[in-house]
Design a protein that fits this description.
This protein is about 20% helix and about 45% strand. By secondary structure, it is an alpha+beta fold. The protein has one domain: Pnp Oxidase, Chain A. Strands 1, 2, 3, 4, 5, 6, 7 and 8 form an eight-stranded antiparallel β-sheet that branches. A hairpin with a 2-residue loop joins strand 5 (about 60-70) and strand 6 (about 70-80). The longest helix has 11 residues, at about 5-15. It is globular and about 45 Å long. The model has no long low-confidence stretch (mean pLDDT about 95).
Length: about 130
Amino acid sequence: MKTKCDVIAFLKKAGTYYLATDDGGQPRVRPFGTINEFEGKLYIQTGKKKSVSMQIHHNPKIEICAFVDGSWLRIAADTKEDDRREARKSMLDAYPELRSMYDEDDGNTEVFVLENATAIFSSFTSPDESLTF
């Protein structure tokens, strides 16, 4: 039985995953690399100046896909901005290499919590495993 810890471990092992958003009817997909657990919830991070931020604020439904060693993970989730300094700091502490571009007090860094999420682990050789969180 897969858990949220398995989701985090998979995404961290992948290093890069692909995040899909909606740009007013046109899907947009881009590489992402941040995933962090804070207060028992999963978070992603971006900058408020980026188009992905505007797309998520317009339509908070996202999908994530990652591939590692012949298996893949798909996550469908709602997102909600967490504007607390502690949440931004936790993310940047987990990814210190981002501190050259972001700071929890810069007015640009933002983090989104994943809510109502369904994660599906798949491969060609074993049945799908899914969980919700």
